[in-house]
Amino acid sequence: MLYKHILLAIDDSPISYAAIAHAEKLAIALNCKVTVTSVIAVDPFKGVDFYKVAPAVTQYLMEAEQNVQNRLKDVQETLIHHGVSVVETKIVRELPPATGILEAADELNADLIVMGSHGRTGFKKFFLGSVAQEVLSISPLPVLIIKSVNELE
């Protein structure tokens, strides 16, 4: 199958940069569109007394939004500079990461999801969960999981 639209899900981890490199090579080889997305997760202060933390919540969300916008813009510019013809960005807000990624893929009619996996195993995976594993197990689309930060050849 030839892909026409890659949804590239990133965060600020080193493994995301490996996923970016893989998506770039695929997009150039297949001449397909890339939408770079990042999820601003569900409020980390949820369940805490709102009136005591309202200023902290507001500051956190403003900083998270700005960081995500900057990261997506940088990746977009890099991909375009390297030869990807169409690169768009999308911020997903207030959803758990896996849900946000899957909803974005559906909304944008992507036909491939590319993302990194931190490679947690055993107790860490059980305790911390795995966004990549959840996306992989639920997605009706093909999912390319990048597990290594080694350079592409």
Automatic annotation (TrEMBL):
It comes from the Bacteria. Its main location: cytoplasm. Residues 3-147 form the UspA domain. This is Universal stress protein. GO terms for cellular component: cytoplasm. Keywords: Cytoplasm. The keyword Cytoplasm applies. SUPFAM superfamilies: Adenine nucleotide alpha hydrolases-like. Coiled coil: none annotated. Belongs to the universal stress protein A family. It is found in: Cytoplasm. The lineage of its organism: Bacteria, Pseudomonadati, Pseudomonadota, Gammaproteobacteria, Moraxellales.
